[in-house]
Amino acid sequence: MGRGHNNRGLFSPETSGTIGLGGSKPSIVSRLGDLSDRKFFCCLLPYSSKVGKSSKLNFGQKASFQAKDSSSTTEGNIIIDSGTALTFFPDASFSELATAFAAGVTGGKRVKDPSGFLPVCYNSTTESRIKNFQGLQFILGGPDVKLKRVNRFIRVAEGVICKPGGGDSAALYGNFAQMNFLVGYDLVKKTIPFKPTDCGKEEVT
């Protein structure tokens, strides 16, 4: 129920499995029917979180939230994907973003990703050493979704941090950008609200 038969990915030994949360009939959201109201939210912990804490996934009425600091979108020009780590932009847009980003950053020397995968990396162990970076925000309707420090860089090797994203043929909003945000999915209204949240709390609303 709500699962795949041939799932592939970069899963760790701690991964329990995968579930389908889309709008199609086989997904667990559709199978739950009225019990889920065809809505759910997830609140993803940062990868650096302490052992023993868990990300949150709620269905139905518990997945309803409205707040003045939340942003909601019904636009269809980007894929919101909790199963993909990185955020991708169309190639032309990412090229402009990377150029503007590099021009606005001082305090960290530009280096290559040892794996050769991520294009924007610096030789700093923490983002606090990178000066003049004004952050990154997404305009999704309502208040802009402003990425926090935990969303901006990932440590890929000793002394090397990278922006978790790159260029591609389509736009995709990955789970690094969703960490410590309450992200709701209403499959009836076809809206996806975002709300800055400490996902390490016992209760998130």
TrEMBL record:
InterPro entries: Aspartic_peptidase_AS, PEPTIDASE_A1, Peptidase_aspartic_dom_sf, Plant_Aspart_Prot_A1, TAXi_C. Pfam families: TAXi_C. Residues 1-195 form the Peptidase A1 domain. One of its GO terms (biological process) is proteolysis. One of its GO terms (molecular function) is aspartic-type endopeptidase activity. Keywords: Hydrolase, Protease. GO terms for cellular component: extracellular region. PANTHER family: ASPARTIC PROTEINASE CDR1-LIKE (PTHR47967:SF128), OS07G0603500 PROTEIN-RELATED (PTHR47967). This is Peptidase A1 domain-containing protein. It comes from Jatropha curcas. The lineage of its organism: Eukaryota, Viridiplantae, Streptophyta, Embryophyta, Tracheophyta.
